């Protein structure tokens, strides 16, 4: 029987509404949900193509075990879990809790059960070895919020619906669909700003898909910090800032003024390549436009001083009078009573704060309990107490997504135990002892806790699974429960929780992700408050009576800031010494042998590394290429489509070039997530992007440093943008004499 089920997409942050066509428990087709109150019939190609991923013949549908010849054989869940449990106990007995680690990747965030259960397990276990995609993504957002607000999870989002002047810095929402912000139909949202007479300015080294539709302001990569400091300079220097208001809202204004006095627009114009007058104009417009905001994302997070840059984005909003105000940069909330007290209490636990622990290798701070993934390989290979010996990787592909995949690959091979929970075989779990089949999003129900506070229009939606798990796939949280059982005798906290779980299951009242989510739905805005509010929401009511979701408020609420700040004086801290110390790192890195600058690029038909196997997304042929400016290409004798070598101080890759004036001269953009080398099970991804070099594209993260010295100090983030590189024609070592010789000798 054919049925249509209302659900929503959980690949990226807008969480667009979807209608799933299901026949005999098979997902036949997905189409956008016209009745979804926010996405209103929009879905992107990745969302639509997801039916191909659910039904992909390359999916892992049964537990797999590594064979002696390096391949995999199918085994039963029973066997897999029995063996994993025994090996886990052995590692625990030899190395203690610190011998066990977990890396969870980006898709984990899109499953409440997955995140909450792994976080509970690793927190109770007390291992320092928790890693995630966050240290290549968003951890400095949490670190910045820790210093500014004393609350790492307070993240302001632009009030897209009401803003009249929006500066987008280092984000490409028309392709990425928005990040640290859930704003379905973001293109329409941005277009509407112009339609009401407003402006959108995109600060980016590349004339991106977003920049093309609005005003483009090119900038030298990794110099946004300077631009932001200069904006603040102008606001104080020209007397634009309302110092009285700022003093009420924030502490440390005098120090801030002293610091930014050194950064006049005229002083930073050369380094940023943004004209001084343009900077002055932007500062004035941010202050004088009643509803204005500046918003930054990956491009401002992956530089050398990402925590400082991220903090400055909020500080610019604050000084301009745009933080926590209508049409500015606002704070979403769940509307849960006692939120601030809860956050304060949680911060006593290392997993819920900044620098709750520091890494053994590199002495870098953990952010919300996760350590920098860049040091994960060295944590496996550096002997001594606390050496990582057993690793679980769930929904992640760090061999491609983290710097220096080659180092990580060989470190993984040396582990006593490596277990992957994934829907595919990928370049990372090629090194696993066991691969356990996970469900895709449509095989599980969900209400996504982490995103509720990030909707630009406060919204709630929950869904049931639309089909049963395919093959023998299981939800990750159920596997975590098994692991808890395995070491319950050794780890008393885990043992206690596991006993509770077993007992409640016997009573038919097992603690599940749905129960947890239900609790949150009930106590938050619009919830039924356990019967106190008649007709209020519950999880079941969301699924059954409001399948397309519910808008719980037309707009974000201003004046939330004081409720989120946990500093004693309830003011934003503008002069945290840790943040100010980062100002010492603004000196440029200059190496004449590496004159170009590398930046990243997200493609509309890719999601990081894992959607290169869907025929719909590969249609028309896909090519992994480096984009470079015509002048840079000409100087190097490089023509369209030529194969080139790209070198940094850390490594080199080969790939074709696309020449385009959408690049700022001197900057080269290369998408990440490629470099499928046949070790994964993605047959079409491995064959895609075929060139004379082979296929599957190149791993851009081979150019990025995993040396702890090179990581950003406050969040341990990898420096993936603005990295010095040089590009030369492949196999023509003799073409450019001195320059290419010295470039070649400059890479180890
Ligand atoms: N150079 C450079 N590197 C980057 C970035 C960059 O901009 N430039 N961006 C960084 C960012 S922002 C991110 S988020 C990371 C991503 O880094 P990762 O999260 O490490 O990698 P992904 O490519 O997202 O791989 C996700 C894996 O999860 C699997 N998967 C998908 N759905 C599920 C599921 O429901 N359950 C389970 N168990 N598995 C599932 C997929 O098959 C895939 O193997 O990459 C980072 N790396
Ligand atoms: N189609 C698609 N959508 C995605 C993803 C995907 O892989 N594909 N990934 C998802 C994930 S994991 C995330 S985290 C989000 C990220 O969401 P976004 O941050 O919007 O993602 P990007 O498209 O990488 O945008 C970053 C922009 O920063 C620019 N940039 C690079 N360096 C600098 C710099 O130094 N300064 C400035 N000002 N700009 C710079 C780049 O040119 C790029 O346009 O996207 C999500 N959405
Ligand atoms: S933008 Fe595309 S991938 Fe992201 S949630 Fe919407 S449909 Fe899914
Ligand atoms: Mo990400």
From TrEMBL:
PROSITE patterns documented for this protein: 4FE4S_MOW_BIS_MGD, MOLYBDOPTERIN_PROK_3
GO MF entry, a single one: metal ion binding
A Pfam family that the UniProt record links to this protein: Molybdop_Fe4S4
Source domain of life: Bacteria
Start and end residues of each 4Fe-4S Mo/W bis-MGD-type domain: 2-58
Keywords linked to the UniProt accession: Iron, Iron-sulfur, Metal-binding, Molybdenum, Oxidoreductase
Keyword Iron-sulfur on entry: yes
Lyase among keywords: no
Essential cofactor(s): Mo-bis(molybdopterin guanine dinucleotide)
Gene3D superfamilies associated with the record: 2.40.40.20, 3.40.50.740, ADC-like domains, Dimethylsulfoxide Reductase, domain 2
Family to which this protein belongs: Belongs to the prokaryotic molybdopterin-containing oxidoreductase family.
Annotated PANTHER family: OXIDOREDUCTASE YYAE-RELATED, TRIMETHYLAMINE-N-OXIDE REDUCTASE
Protein name per its UniProtKB record: Putative oxidoreductase
